[in-house]
Amino acid sequence: MTTIGDLPEDVLVELLSLLPARELIRSCRLVCSQWRYVVDLNTLWKRKCQRDGFYHQSLDRSISDWKIFYILLLLKKNLIKNPRAEENFQHWTIDHNEGDKWKIEELPGAHGSHMPDPKVQKYFVTSYGPCFKSQLITLDKEGYWNQLMDEKRPEITVKDWYAARFDCGCRYELTVRLLSKDYLVLEEFHPEPVVIEQWSDAQWREISHTFQNYPAGVRYIWFQHGGHDTQYWAGWYGIRVTNSSITIGPQT
């Protein structure tokens, strides 16, 4: 009588590639030494990438570990919660709230412009005193286990969108830190503040940075942005921010 264990390796790869990644790792890999061997094969995970639309022939030379590549793509999501002001200020920590404080407005806003992405409907806006807000992301809670972060060092990509009103100048700042378990700064992205003069084009602009080859030990990501207007007008004439994102893994 023929059993599944008698199947040729290529047939077993094809069958097991139909199963969810979690089942392969947590269950199938423990069945026997043969299944452990097959589940660990690069060819199985490459086949899963092909099945799920993650595969491009151009990747063949650059991907050394298709299992990690597949898992990173499965995990990939925006780690910033409430990036578009759709849930008021939920998930954000207000670090500075000067002047007339943070406010939420609907696009395009007074003397403003629409975002390139029509799905973005709201933004956060600052006042005449410093307004900064932040989020602290705990990586293991998001599925990124310590060994993965330390050994594979997947790319961490940060993006933010900001804009000024046409009729008022303002200042924008962004700081992103990769932190250890003890909250020590292992790497930081803190570009020069952007100062936008009065009578600008009021267009939305994206700032982006990708952390690569960072030190081992990253356990948290801290994201902070904000600013203020430069003419100290009462109300909400400062920098506008929305659609922030932090993603981990392949850019493909």
UniProtKB/TrEMBL annotation:
Superkingdom of origin organism: Eukaryota
Family matches, as InterPro entries: F-box-assoc_dom (IPR007397), F-box-like_dom_sf (IPR036047), F-box_dom (IPR001810), F-box_only (IPR039752), Galactose-bd-like_sf (IPR008979)
Keyword field: Ubl conjugation pathway
Domain F-box: 1-48
GO molecular function, one term: ubiquitin protein ligase activity
GO annotation terms (biological process): ERAD pathway; glycoprotein catabolic process; SCF-dependent proteasomal ubiquitin-dependent protein catabolic process
Record's GO cellular component terms: cytoplasm; SCF ubiquitin ligase complex
Domain FBA: 69-250
Gene3D superfamilies named among the record's database cross-references: 1.20.1280.50, Galactose-binding domain-like
Pfam families for the chain: F-box-like (PF12937), FBA (PF04300)
Protein name: FBX6 protein
